[in-house]
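Fold it.
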Amino acid sequence: MKRFLRDNGLSLAFGALFLVSLVGQALSGLADFNDRQVAHGADTVGLGAYLTSSSFAVDVAENWQSEYLQFFLYVFATVWLVQRGSPESKPLGRIGTESDEDQQVGRYVKANSPPWAKAGGWRTAVFARSLALVMLGIFVLSWLAQSVAGVAAYNAEQLSDFGDPVSWVDYLVSADFWNRTLQNWQSEFLAIGSMAVFSVYLRRRGSPESKPVGASHGVTDEAG
């Protein structure tokens, strides 16, 4: 058990933080939702009803889609874009998809390489892009979920304010949808861009996201 906890500490810790945060969001979201219900003269709801509501779903989905968009773009963009001096970047001379030897595919596969890396053909081609494809797929599904839950939440507010409901297509071009979307995107792009630049000049001893403390600012793709 100790070895399992050590070997999987990063995923387990962040998984626990995710669950704690999600529970906190549910409880605080329920309180806020009921405050708005009371302000509109409507009935309050219980936790179970709130967890299955469009209000909770859209708040969760809009954050998930922005996070996975961030990671998809980062995984995809760092194939061709580099940042001199950043451990978040490849070396300056390895721009692109790199050679079979560098990527350990084709005749350069190892005995312990994943099966689909050894298989060749379409399976290796898919596996070679699998990280970006999964990130993109989760982003698309989360964005779709945001739009569906968002139009339901928006129409519920419209009806409570005696306004007209809108169709899903109309909601996709509405200010509410894009305000929810872009306020998340801009923060994700700022955070990942800041990390790439800050890691050129700042250090965190022992972190793989940082260069060694004594490394030159110009050293690229070297973790401490």
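The CA atoms of residues 40 and 185 lie 31 Å apart.
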